[in-house]
Each structure stands twice: as structure tokens, then as C-alpha cells.
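Q: What structure does this chain adopt?
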Amino acid sequence: MDTGKRRRETARAAQVRPGVVAALAVILLSVGHFLGGSGATEASGGTEGAGDTPGDARATLSSNAAPAPSKAPARQQVVEAAARPARDVDARLTALVRNRIDHALADAERATKRVATRNNTFVSVHVRELGTDGALVSIGSDRSVRPASNLKLATTAAALVGLGGDWEFTTDFEAQGALRADGVLEGDLVVRAGGDPLYDGARNGDVDHLLAPVVAELRARGLRRVTGDLVLDEGDFLDPGPGPAWPDASQHWEDYCALAAGFSANGGCLTATVTPRAAGSRATRRVRPRNAGLPLRGEVRTGGPKSRLDVRIGATTAAITVAGSIPEGIGERVYRFRHPDPVGMFGAALEAALESGGVAVDGAVRRERGAPGGETLATLRSPLLPLITPINTDSDNALADHVFFALGHELGGGGTREGGARAVRAALDRLGVDTDGLRQVDGSGLSRDNRLTARQLAALLDAVLSLEPAIAQAYVDSLAIAGRTGTLAERMRGGPAENRVRAKTGWIRGTSSLSGLAQTTSGRLLVFAILIDYPAQAGGLNTSVFKPMQDGVCEVLVGWEGPGE
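A:
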């Protein structure tokens, strides 16, 4: 709900300058700033790779991890670009790509005993050279298919274009009543939802340090006690719940099914750290956020050095469970899993942070919409830009959905699926990307109802990289590096595409995707999108057939020498 107050300006506008693509290419080729990220798990339970390996000193698409830009890029105003060179379809490159596809389809038929065939498996590929018009490769690229996590490319691009790299989630704290000179608020403390996931991937679920600044700000305003309730006003944000056409309910406890909402903490997840002790004793369990609003049940016993690792985790509306056994001497294990109520978790964490910081609340934590407020006492601020990398490099679904709903809240008329979709479509329109056939119901790509074309994805990548270098670099930096980081850490390692491809992976049952950028050995930059739609019942093909095919296509692209050469 809009309170009627004037919103803070999200960012200043900036214009695209002529020749910015060429300038970006020079930056990338000479300095090698295609960097960042660490390992993770791809959506819907498919592990895409983890880990990090030091960069090659010769690398151009990536080298050593680059620092964040010293000044966050601002929201973009897209203007008419200078004339771009045209490229025709490259028959030789297309033939090489088709050859990889044909081999993969034959392998899929054999592996599944014709459950997956050439008639029910669709491969879409679109490749273009950065900053040019026309496709080098266009194979079925106008068919709208499920993009899986490649949809995150659209969500994050829309956020950078529509909100700006210096945009922040804002959560206002308002006094519903008079704040007396002795620090007593005679009434409720109203907190207005801003869609903040309240997430720091480096802290294993801890959010106390993220709440500390707003508690300190409240204290600085003189607040010491609230006689009423702590009211969480969810405003125009949707009720947290599974999205349409999500994985079945048996998977909803997993972190990749974490819920997004107007309020959250730790991206809607709990993080449990289990540390073994001496054999026969209880292992140490630690769950963060420290106050999640649910009791902790079960115990983990420490077994002998050769005993089985069997830690069972989960959370319901009644309790958090961390139970089982862990071998002596193996070191701590960290588990991340969904909290059933992100709004309730935020309320519990905030109430505890207020109490620890010297602000007592006499009443209860209460959820409401359209609560009357008053003077703003403090504002919790969380920057957008640090979330782009865990979304694209590590494929965090809940963070992508939080950005999606925040886009709707700020620009689309409401923090809902419809509002987010309107905001993303408007951003793509501003970028000049054709949105015919686009269907978006979440920000993550987890839903099977999403639709996008390979041509749209490639055009999107090209358009974002035509913005000013700071925005373009922030976007590129968010992508995983082949053979090095995030969901590409274990892919293309040791081959010609290692360290020359930055891309976003994607997988849900029956869909496999990979889209991003490739630098050829001759120094050219290509944008590509590969989307594969196959029978959902043909299990195992993503790992055994389609990821190798995508990696092989990337190797072909890296070896491209240029038009007519």
C-alpha cells in the first residue's frame, strides 16, 4: 500500500554515450574486470558447481576478483544509440553449433531409450557479436520457452536499469503516537515494508549487524520504550507463499524454495552450523538468524571418525529441527533451508535486536496493512548492488524474487507478481528489447510458467552492455566465470572456454539453459543464449547431455575468428 508520502528519489538519470560499447570492450580486454562470485546450488535442487580458483594472469574475461565500483552506477536513461555495424548469419559457425546440438540429441535419445527425441526436445540458440546488429547464429531463437534461472538476467537487468545501481531497499520506522522526552513512545512502532531480504552471504545467516544501524538510529532519536505493538505493515506486497507452477510441496523446505515478501531476514532462510565434538557427545548446533521466532528441536550426536554423516534439517510453523549424527573430526557443516514465514522471522529478529539495543516493546509483534503512522524515526537501508552477484553467480531464487517484488513496489504499481512483471517489461522496452512472447511470474525462473526467447535474452545482454561502463561492468561482474566461480565453477575447466565465458546457468525439470558472454581467442566479444526444452520425465539429461552440449557450444564460440575470416 502507498502511504501517500513522497518516495525518496531512487537515482539520478544517465545517458548512453556514443561509442560506449567500444569503450567497454577496451576496458574488459585491457584490464580484465570480468570478475566476482563464489559457488552455490542451482534452482530446483540441481547442483551446478561450487568453489573458486585463482584467475589466470593472462585472462581477459576474468582474472583476480575486482573490487566493487568506487561509485555505484546510477539508473539509466536509454537514448538513441549510434549506428551499429551489421552482421549476417555465419554459416560455418552455425554448422558447428548445429553439430554439437545433433550429437546431444542423439545422446539424449540413446540415454532415455527415446523418452527424449528430436521431436519432443527443442534447442534454441542465438548468438550475436557485442555492439552489432544481426545474428551470427539463430536456431529456433524466436520460440518462447521456459528460461529457468536465465530469467534472473532479465530481473537483474531491469533492477539496474529501472532502479539504478545506487538504489537501496528502505524500511521506514514510524511513531504511531507521541514520543515523550523520557524516550517512551505512547503507541505503536510501525515498520513499513520495502521488500528487503536482509541478507549478507558472508555471515552464515546472521542479521544482527544488518539491524544494528537502524536500532542505533532509533536510540539516537531518543526512543527507549514502546508502550504499544511492533506493527509490521506489509503494504502492497503479496502474502508470502509458493509461486505458481513451483516444484512440488515435498521440495518446499529447500533453500531454493525460500519465500519472498515485504519483510524477510537472511533471504527467507535459516542457516544451521553443526560442529562435531568428541565421539559420543552432542555436537554443537547454531541456527541463524539468532532469533527466528521458532523453537529449536532435536539433537545431533557426534559419532566415531568413520561413522555416517546424517544431519536432518527443516522448519515448520511449529519448530526448527536440526537432528541426526556427524562424524568426529570432519569439521563444521553449514546447512541452509527455508523458513516457513519470512515476515514472522523478520519480526522476531527485529524484536530481539531492539531489546538487545535498549529499546523495549511492551506489546506484541503484529502484522497489518495500511496501518496509520506518523513521524519517521529511522530508516533501515540495504543497497541493491551487493545482491546482484549472489542472484546471478550463485542463482539465489529468493533474492531474485525480492528484487522482482521490489521493482513492482517501486515502479509497477505494487509488490506483486503482476507489478514486478510490469516493471521488468517496462525496463526491457526502454532497452529496446522486444517483449512479445515474454511471460514472467517470478524473478527467479523457478516457476514453470515463465516464458522467454533466446533472441530476447541475447538482445537483453547486448543492450545492458551498451549502457555506461559502470552499469555494464556491474552486470558482467555478477555473472559466473567458466571453470572458476559460482554455478560454473566446475564447468569448462581445463578447456578453451575456461575463464573466457561469463554466464548464467539454469535448470528446472525439463529445462536447461545457459546465457552470457564469450570472448573469442581473437579478442571479440559474443553474447549468446542457449535454451533447451525436453520431456520432464527424462531425468539426468541436464548433467549427462545438455550441460556438456552447452559447454561445447561455448568452446565453438570461443574459437570463432570473426566474419569472413
